[in-house]
């Protein structure tokens, strides 16, 4: 399939426009790992819903929203990183993402608490660190609605050292999980979608704030080794 037949709809960034969203990275890493040629169509936050609706995609059945990533495969369109991963695996089964592994569920269960604990720390930084002007107002408004207060207030009231302590404990558990087998990946020497879930999230934190990334992984050597082992699939980021 030629690159024009696969289009990844991703979120743009300020400066050199390249991938930062952890969900988009799951799809991009899968595409890169499978060696598929594709092009990226960067889409600002306010343009996501009208663009994907115009392509004929239905909104998410749970929250009735449109989200990134979305993917064009030939004449068909797909939305949601796991939906996309399953479709890629069906069409291009080798190399495998190992989507049937129970470790994917375990990965999410361990990673989720770390990201959730740090949400009041990383979320308010996203506009200044990552977003272009067109998406800034949208992000501030929609995330304030989501957390029930302006993001500056959210950071002040809900952030702090207690959140960091919770996140670091969660990362310790995640690092132990990653290191449970020989080799840098969750499945030892074989990379899988579970690895892409983790490293995409870690790269997201790094893009927002390098110091936060360093603090989070200061004592999580297995996760750093996992990131290093996945470096080859981060090269195509735009």
UniProtKB/TrEMBL annotation:
Domain GST N-terminal, first and last residues per copy: 11-96
Coiled coil: none
InterPro entries: Glutathione_S-Trfase_N (IPR004045), GST_UstS-like_C (IPR054416), Thioredoxin-like_sf (IPR036249)
One Pfam short name: GST_N_2
Segments crossing the lipid bilayer: none
SUPFAM superfamilies named in the record: Thioredoxin-like (SSF52833)
Protein name: GST N-terminal domain-containing protein
Organism of origin: Lophium mytilinum
